[in-house]
Amino acid sequence: MDTTAPTASLQPVGELGIYTVSELRDAWRHALNMHDEVEIDLGGITEIDTAGLQLMLMAKRCPGKTVRFVNHADAVLRLLDLANLGGTLGDPLLVTDGATHFRKTPSFQE
Amino acid sequence: MDLSQALATFLDESRDLLAQMEEILLRAETSDLAPEDMHALFRCAHTIKGSAGLFGLDVVVRFTHGVENVLDRLRNGEIVFTDALINLLLESQDHIARLVHAVAASDALPEDEGGPLLERLQAFNNDFDGRAGDMVKACETERVEVDVASGIAIGAEHWHLSLRFGPDVLRNGMDPLAFINYLRSLGDIVHVETITDAVPELFAGDPEACHLGFEIALRSAAEKAEIEAVFEFVQDAATITIVPPCARIDAFIALIDALGEDPRRLGEILVACGSVTERELFQALADQHLATDPAPIGELLIERAAVQPRVVEAALGKQKSAEERRGGEGKSVKVPADRLDALIDQVGELVIAGAATQLHAQRTTNPDLQEVASNLLRLVEDVRDTALRLRMTPIGEVFNRFPRVVRDVSRELGKEIELVISGAEAELDKSMVERIGDPLMHLVRNAIDHGIEGPAQRLDASKPARGTLNLNAYHESGSIVIEVADDGKGLDAERIFAKAVERGLVAPDAQLSTAEIHRLILEPGFSTASEVTSLSGRGVGMDVVKSNVEALRGTLDISSEPGRGTTMRLCLPLTLAIIDGFQVGVSGSTFILPLDTVVECIELPSDAQGGGYLRLRDKVLPFVDLREMFGLEDEPCPARQNVVVVRFAGRQAGIAVDELLGECQTVIKPLGRLFERVAGIAGSTILGTGEVALILDVPQLVQRAITNEGRERSTAAQSSASIA
User: For the structural domain made of B394-573, what CATH number should be given?
Assistant: First the structure.
């Protein structure tokens, strides 16, 4: 990971749940220690539970840092819908009017 | 959206779902169901309930809810399918169908009938309720602070659930959102507010501890016990408050008190859930001195109003799924039948005009005109085919109702019958599908009632105890053939003949072939059943079937073998509107034969003139002479006559004519009442020249030729004349 770039991109895959939250939290914390902005691509998430959702909420609460979630997998979207947290944890890139649905974010922006 | 339109959609959807339920339930009788089937079954009832709720059809909701509970228990493996349960569920499904039907017809809903059914359904729920009931008592005394005795009544018509989970819930393997998701099986979640205030920062908190709470508005007809049962496993590790619909504001104040969170914020969340109105809440809070300044709505609401609509929907991919839904709808379009009929009519006129154009073009010597005219005609033909195909529906639509009929009727009669359906994908005109249902139903019931014997009788005849009823459909030369075949005892020719004599239908000394005797059961007022059952045998059966089938320009054939079974073969034209015709001329008049029935054309052998049969490749072919039949003697008989060989329902016959004029498209026009009964004529049409031509009724002509042949042959045998 390029530590000089202001933005980092993470792509967790598999489960975002009680069995993986600790591990993921450490990874995200690590990225946030080095970057002010972290973009987390959720396209590879196959399962998510309440613990995973809570971790997403926690990530949003990181003073001085910005965490963005993009490319939500369907499983994630369904849970966000259920919890009515789409406004907080939804994907901001999807709503830009008229713009193409920008799904793939380059790993680093110089 | 127009509510009546939405209601129509609901009715359509319900019918589909009910049909699906029936299909699964019938399958459950013979084999174990896969989990998906159990879920599908539950979803059917659940969807109907939910949609009925939207339209305020409380009777439907109440009843379906009872059914849904049982299906839920089945799904969860708490109870298993038994014959009694399947019967009960089928009856319940019938009752829902009746309710839906009553809604469609704007009749009063037959509510009373549901009561006894619900009670029986309840029997399957009882132990469940007992268990849940105990739990409710425990909850009510200890934690659930619901007091509806005093205070201002408020109008929210949903349950309000307040959930606060303890820190260990997640670690203990419980997933709060899964519970909430499960609430959907009880009703509609109107609103969920996730309480995230306690969620720690990423760097500070333990991600495995639960810091979340939820406020939920749930529209459901469920009992409180059922809602509580959802949270049974977490009740020790969570604070759960359930406020019933239409509770008083005090209940919410108590809730706010008990939670000990910021009352203003919590109040706003309650407002967001729609559980209380803003005015009521702040009034109440002020009264209780919980909130000191009655400021306008709080930040949360403003924030919510700002982010809600597009952002959330887009982010959730709702737009995407909406598009997918639209895409799915695009695959089929519902069109009112009268518009289709109008289109077919217009295409019919177009066909006539096209044929006229073609005719006039041919009379000119202008090759360009002839070319465009034939091009035009070809296109018109394509349009015609496409237009007719719009109305084509698989016959399976009719067949689908029979599994249930066979099941019910065979049970009633104590017979074991297996229904085998094949060819359900064969298509025919929608109007035919609608009109063939009743005749078919009669044939099926007849086969079960009179055809297939009881198990004991079958075993005596060394047949399997279980009878088989075959429903089969297939296309044959422009017609669709539908067979109802049983492996029962077959028709008893002697008994039929005796009965016919008794009823005065035939003379006692009449010489009839077996096939002719079989056809006697189609005569009005004939019934072979010695005892009259509730199902058939009222003497109004087969003749009605026969006339129904004939009204559709179809035929009904019977073949039966004693001890082996009976096959009823319905042969119907695919469409009632437009056909490809074959024009023939007889003594200056033009007649039309449906091209599909034409097999070949041959020259009439000189030695066969006037006779009833001729030799065709070493086989006897009976034929009718149209000249003779219609008395057309205006013009002298040409030196050379032709025979059109036609086939219908597996039999061939010849039709002797003067000239062969070739193919043409034919729009069938009805003959009108006066000529309805003219033998040998099925309809009329207008030719390109503007002349009227009669369409020949091939089935009738074939029948006539064969009967003639029988007679001719017997006279021929008597005079020992050789066959041509």
Answer: 3.30.565.10
